[in-house]
Amino acid sequence: MREITYLEAIREAMTQEMERDESVFLIGEDIGTYGGAFQVTHGMYEQFGPERILDTPITELGLTGAATGAALIGMRPIAEIMFMDFTTLASEQLVNQAAKLRFMFGGKASVPMVLRTPAGSGTGAAEHHSQSLENWFVHVPGLKVVMPTTPYDAKGLLLASIRDNNPVVFVEHKLLYKTKGEVPEEDYTIPLGQADVKRSGTDLTIVATSIMVSRSLEAAEELAKEGINVEVVDPRSLRPLDTGTIVESVKKTGKVLIVHEAVKTGGFGGELAGVIAESEAFGYLEAPIVRLAGREIPIPYNRTLEQNAVPQVANIVEKARDIVQLKV
Amino acid sequence: MKKAEHLELYRQMVVIRRLEESAAHLYQEGKIGGFLHLYIGQEAVSTGLISMRQPQDRVITAYRDHGVAINCGISANAVMAELLGKETGTSKGRGGSMHMADTEKNFWGGHAIVGAHLPIAAGLALGDQYEENDAVTICMFGDGATNIGFFHEALNLSAVWDLPVLWVCENNQYGMGTEIKRASAVEEMRQKAEGYGMPNLRTEGGMDIMQVREAAGDAIEHIRSGKGPFFLEIVTYRFVGHSMGDPERYREKEEVTKWREDDPIGIYNKYLVDEKVAKAADLDKVEAEAEAEVEAAVKFAEESPEPALDTLFDHVYVEEN
């Protein structure tokens, strides 16, 4: 099968859906002739024109509200927020409006929109362009939150998100944009709420999100050399969450390491740990549930400090080894 | 305008007044919870404004929304049942006083975060522009909303994209308990539209439905002819507190008394009689019918079922895609 990048997979999903469904349009800052800050929408303006690729002023709140309103009357807007840090400005419209309108109106409305945004550190972009804030949105009933790791997942999950009749926060990772993988040319969807076992193993379950899935897979390779056989589970969507796949994996291995880039306190790892502890997997645990996540600091500019702010492959290897050897 | 249409608008204004007076009693009896913001005194604004819309025109407003709901054609039964949190309420008891809505009547709610519905109004208009619908979105908000960021982002977007929105600032002169001069850098809210190059008008005639209708008609016509958004400031006054339990320490009783002399229902009543549109007896009959309608609505709401507990999780997500 042909290989394309994660970025191209996202662009392809949007392009194919816009060709199929006229109610889909893009709205965001400099997504038109500029092509988006990361060039995700490059070339789409030329194909679809200014009527369907809507360049907005710098107005995260305004554009998120505009997408919400248009979705209310049946459009399927895809809003781009240039950096996840800027979703703080959009969050009122997402959290108080898009997520609640259906419920608040007794089921008489729906908000079929997607809000795409790149999260994550590793680009030297410092405090205001590096955060992973997904769990803020996971906390809100009415929203769905998706975090693809591979190009294949990115395309299938984005197509499913656009066709979903609810507001979906689609969290991309900047460092994944240039990663390559096999992606079918035809359109396909991956249902939201279906985890994927990215690697099978028997000694330890690693549940990881976004780029930490890639790093966990690398770590698993290292650990395999030591005879430690790791299973890596990628939830792919955080809300809804496929608890079944996670619980089954933990029952099999008896040990679990949770890895994400977002700050540990209040991060999604706490939710995962809670789900596991409350489940039948609890009786199978042979070691404490362990979380490895972002440190309790803003993302620093300095490259060395930045790398030490979030889990790296070596940290995952070390922590996994400790759990397997019951040193935690 | 024909006599029947006048009597219908008069009926709406009286229904709103009686319904809210009943709601105030029910609130004091503890049957309505949360917050209750009454529209008493401002009835001419939404009644006049909404009477000028075509069915395809959308309406969206803030939390002082009972009157707007009635004007949009939601029954007194459904409004009262919503106030009592019943399954038969217009939002099935999920929204309450501040979240009346019925999308089938092109009424997009009842929003309770000041100014937050303005970007959504821009979005409704964007959707209509995208679909090339011949619709105008009428977005109502108070003077207080003009000081928050939502307002400015939404106005700018609407102007940049020539969106078909009528921005209606109901200037009742207080943002909760803060008078305009303590909150706004400019005295007239319409001045803020100037900053976005947006045509605008301020009318002092907010207690007179005929003046509201004239201003609204011109503004809607402007927008429907494809000239982009319009900003209409309507000066009005609320006769009662911001919400139930407001001690009203921020304004003098004399001020309220003076404004009450300009009761919008009284003004309309006098107009209809003076212009020989209707006889006093016609209007008395409408008032009696409105009172009966509200009494029936209270009975309907009180007798309506509570939402069943097995529906607790309904309406959070659209289940089918």
Descriptive account of the structure:
The complex is a heterodimer of chains A (328) and B (321). With 328 residues, chain A is α/β, with parallel strands linked by helices. Chain A is built from twelve helices and 14 strands. Chain A folds into two domains: 180 residues, Rossmann fold; 128 residues, Rossmann fold (3-Layer(aba) Sandwich), CATH 3.40.50.920. Chain A has a seven-stranded mixed beta sheet, sandwiched between helices. In chain A, strands 9-11-10-13-14 form a five-stranded mixed beta sheet, sandwiched between helices. In chain A, helix 2 links the parallel strand 2 and strand 3. Chain A is globular, with a radius of gyration of 19 Å. The mean pLDDT of chain A is 98. In chain B, 45% of the residues lie in helices and 11% in strands. Chain B contains twelve helices and eight strands. With 321 residues, chain B is α/β, with parallel strands linked by helices. In chain B, strands 2-1-3-4-8-7 form a six-stranded parallel beta sheet, sandwiched between helices. Chain B has a two-stranded antiparallel sheet with strand order 5-6. Chains A and B meet through helix 3, helix 4 and helix 5 of A and strand 2, helix 5 and helix 6 of B.
